[in-house]
Design a protein that fits this description.
Blueprint lengths: L1 E9 L7 E8 L3 E6 L6 H9 L6 E6 L2 E2 L10 E5 L10 H6 L10 H13 L15 H13 L5 E5 L7 H18 L2 E5 L3 H7 L2 E6 L2 E7 H6 L4 H8 L2
Parallel strand pairs: 3-8, 3-9, 6-7, 7-8
Antiparallel strand pairs: 1-2, 1-4, 4-5, 9-10
C-alpha cells in the first residue's frame, strides 16, 4: 500500500543532518513510529503529506508515485494533537468540511458522515459546538473528519497525546479497528511505547533521521537489541 524508498531530506542550512527513510506499510496496518524528540518522525509524516519536499526518493501509494503531488492531491490525510476544529461550527459541519469544503453534499456523502460519526460514538451530538464537548469527543471529531475523506493513508502525529491513559487506549483501539475495516495504511507517531503495543504489530524506531529498527512491537520494546532503543526506553 504505502512504499517509501530512499526518501532523502535535508533541512535548509543542513543543521539537522541528512535524513533518509525506507519503509512499507500494508493496507489495514497501523505501524507505529517511536524515537527521541527531533529524530525525524514528524519530518517523515510531513514528507508523506507533501508539506515538505524531499531532495530525492520515492513515495508510492498502491504503486503510484505521489512525491511530486501537492498536499491536497495526495491520497493522504493527517490528524494532529491539535485537532484544528472550527469552534463556531457544529460537529456535523466540522466533519462535513472533510468531504467538501463547499458543504454541498450528496445523499451518499451525508450517509458517509453519519456512518463515521456512528462508528466513533458521536451520534446524537451533531449539533453541538466543539467547546461543548470533552477533549476526547473533540479528537473523535477530528478522526471522523479524516476518515470521511476516504484517503488511502492515515497519518497520526501525536494525535492522542493530550488524552488520559484510558481514553487514549480506547481511541487507539478504535482507530486500529477502523483502519483494518477500511483497509487504510496508517502511521502512528507517539512518545508512549504503550500506544505502539496497543496499535501495532510492527513498530519502527527512528534515530538521527533514519529508521534503525523495524520489528514486531513487543520484541522491539521488551527485548531491544540496539543501545539507542534501550537508552530511549530507559529514559521514559
Amino acid at each position: 500500500m504505502l512504499e517509501i524508498e530512499a526518501l532523502r531530506y535535508q533541512f535548509p542550512g543542513g543543521d539537522s543532518g541528512n535524513m533518509q527513510f525506507d519503509l512499507s506499510v500494508s493496507a489495514g496496518e497501523v505501524l507505529s513510529l517511536i524515537g527521541p524528540s527531533g529524530s525525524g518522525k514528524t519530518t517523515l509524516l510531513n514528507l508523506i503529506g507533501g508539506f515538505l519536499k524531499p531532495d530525492s526518493g520515492r513515495i508510492h501509494v498502491d504503486g503510484e508515485a505521489i512525491e511530486q503531488l501537492p498536499p491536497g492531491q495526495r491520497p493522504v490525510t493527517i490528524v494532529f494533537q491539535q485537532h484544528n476544529l472550527f469552534p463556531h461550527l457544529d460537529l456535523y459541519t466540522n466533519v462535513a468540511l472533510g468531504v467538501n469544503p463547499s458543504l454541498k453534499l450528496s445523499t451518499e456523502q451525508n450517509q458517509c458522515i453519519s456512518d463515521a460519526l456512528d462508528s466513533l460514538g458521536l451520534t446524537g451530538l451533531e449539533k453541538r459546538k466543539p467547546g461543548e464537548l470533552s477533549g476526547g469527543q473533540q479528537q473523535r471529531i477530528a478522526l471522523a473528519r479524516a476518515l470521511v475523506r476516504e484517503r488511502k493513508v492515515l497519518l497520526l502525529d501525536e494525535a492522542f497525546a493530550a488524552l488520559g491513559p484510558a481514553l487514549r487506549e480506547e481511541l487507539i483501539g478504535l482507530v486500529k479497528t477502523l483502519v483494518q475495516h477500511k483497509k487504510i495504511a496508517a502511521l502512528l507517531v507517539s512518545h508512549q511505547p504503550r500506544d505502539a503495543l496497543i496499535a501495532s504489530d510492527r513498530t519502527a524506531f527512528v534515530s538521527d533521521g533514519r529508521i534503525i529498527a523495524l520489528q514486531p512491537t513487543r520484541q522491539l520494546l521488551e527485548n531491544p537489541d540496539l543501545v539507542e532503543v534501550r537508552n530511549y526506553l530507559g529514559s521514559l
